[in-house]
Amino acid sequence: MVKYKIIAATGCATGIAHTYMAQEALEQAAAKRGFSIKVETHGQTGVENKLSSIDISTAEAVIVAADIDVDADRFAGKRVVIVPVARGIREPDKLIERALSQDTPIYKANQVTKTSSNTNVSQNTSESMITKIYTSLMNGVSHMLPLVVAGGVLVAISFFWGIYSADPKSSQYNHFAYMLNTIGSTTMNLMVPVLCAYIAEAISKRSGLIVGFATGMIAFNNGTGFLGAIVGGYLAGYIVKALQSLLKPLPEKEFRGLKAIFLYPVLGVFISGLIMWFISTPMKTINIGMMDFLKGMQNSDPLILGIIVGCMAASDFGGPINKAAYLTGTALLAQGNYYFMAGVSAACIAPPLATGFAVLMNPKAYSKNERSAGYVNFLLGSTHITEGAIPFAAKNPLLNIPAFMVGASIAAVLSYMSKIQVPAPHGGFIVLPLVNHPFLWVIYIVIGAIVSAALLAIIAGRQAKKHGGVIEAGGGMGMIIGENDDVEPVVKPNKQIQNEFTNEVKDDWNKILSEDNIFLNVSFKNQQEALRYLSEQAAKRGLTNSAENVFQKYVQREKEGSTGMENGIAIPHAQDSSVKKSSMLIAKLNKPVSWNTFDGKPVDLIISFLIPEQDNGAHLRYLSSTAKLLTHQDFIDQLRNSNSGKEIAALFNK
């Protein structure tokens, strides 16, 4: 049985290059010291080289270099260093030194790993706690997001038949619209229990999921909204963790089934549900008090009223505080007061629109799923569905919610100052024909949304920079592949490691790379020009039927996340139906061009891949193998010193 001195787990948002670069860097650093190491990777193809229970139990130390959840709790009882994947690539030597240090404390499940402050490798306690909370929250948001989008879009479409088309008592009633509205509303109602359940699941696994669903339903029925779901999720998760700790003395063999199907769910639901029940009751009293307060404010200063309404509408996005402002406006509509609802609607519409503008302003700071949600929110916001902003608010509530409040307040204040009147309680821009100053009202809402968007984009950019890249919601849920218990320890010289990686795809290099596809001493003004050149060269060589299609796929891939690596290297890739076969293009530049790279340096060496639409995942192997090779300085030196296409092709093929 092989015993490893160090074990590690790596994973990045896209699950391609950085995952394997961190793996390779750690293996090289361990090899230099003569240490055996096994690295588990969380890539797009799933979990590979999975760590077994024996690997974990016999290892001296653990390194987690990941931007996604890799289930660090299984390493409880070991010395563990947890850092972003970027540090796994940049500082592998320091990480190994830190992991083996006696100063590194023993990791406890669901607790912060406290590290001394005398090293820039470790993270402080508050950062680690925030990361843990963030990962759990994103697990809930990633499962909730499709429900918000699906339900919200269906509800929005139902308004096309009229604002009251889903009301059987209205003259606008349409049965199909009624069905759409009911299906959409029911779907959106699931978001509170789902958010709650999957926050709990990230904390205490399956038992937490069950208790979280029950707690979430209580939060929904008692009207505590998505804030109640977040509180309930952490409540359920940690109550189950506490029960697991308290019931640990019971013999595992005899009581395992009883604890899983009886003790944890029954006791967990009872305790968590009881607490949520008591939390909900005072919130109702507070809501009634807020409604009475707002009614008394309707004739006050429009500046003060707008700020109050804006902050309430953007505080919980359809939750009890938001509903207090909305229901007050609805009640005043019945009394013929159309003035109050104008500010409420503006404040409800601005936040989801802000998310759309934010992803347009700073697309690189958001994940692909977040950008898609932002675009959908243009539709949701335009029809007065504030809930579309929830995933963005939940990502960083302490900063993002105030950003939403600023824009919502601006929209509401401007609406009140201009005496705009909105006679309908819902519908968003669909009711513009009923508004006394429709164009002005839309302008005010857009102004508020853009202000919020600018703040959101700045916050997202700083967070992405802090974490070394965009963190995808719900990461680390890949397919688990079989264990690999018989792998020999990695105690090998760099050349041997390099040759092994080259041999992984030895035959493939011959098929995808030729001298004709290598371009030397070329010059470009910018990244776009370089990508355009590669596209055109691919078409000239018969590798694709459409240079434009390939170029657009290059650009689209860069928007999803930069392909810039480090040491002046980028590996852009395009997958399209116009590509005839898998191909590799290499360009060495006279002068570097600006590119969003891992180390902030411009790019003067481009290694590009063209992939057919159906390639059975082969391009992932090309990309990961190339990324591994590019962590070897001797390989990079040989590549840069090669002065002909023949030399470069031979370097990959040898």
UniProtKB/TrEMBL annotation:
Among Pfam families, the record links this protein to: PTS_EIIA_2 (PF00359), PTS_IIB (PF02302)
MF terms in GO: carbohydrate:proton symporter activity; protein-N(PI)-phosphohistidine-fructose phosphotransferase system transporter activity; protein-phosphocysteine-sugar phosphotransferase activity
Keyword annotations for this protein? Cell membrane, Membrane, Phosphoprotein, Phosphotransferase system, Sugar transport, Transferase, Transmembrane, Transmembrane helix, Transport
What range(s) does the PTS EIIA type-2 domain occupy?
A: 511-654
Localization = Cell inner membrane
| Main subcellular localisation | membrane
Protein's membrane topology = Multi-pass membrane protein
- Residue ranges of domain PTS EIIC type-2 in the record: 133-474
- The residue ranges of the PTS EIIB type-2 domain are 6-101
Gene Ontology CC:
plasma membrane
Family annotation (PROSITE patterns)? PTS_EIIA_TYPE_2, PTS_EIIB_TYPE_2, PTS_EIIC_TYPE_2
Report which superkingdom the organism of origin falls in: Bacteria
List the GO biological process terms: phosphoenolpyruvate-dependent sugar phosphotransferase system
- Write out the transmembrane intervals: 144-164, 176-200, 207-240, 260-279, 300-318, 338-361, 398-418, 438-459
Q: What is this protein called?
A: Phosphotransferase system fructose-specific component IIB
Q: What organism is listed for this UniProt entry? A: Liquorilactobacillus mali KCTC 3596 = DSM 20444
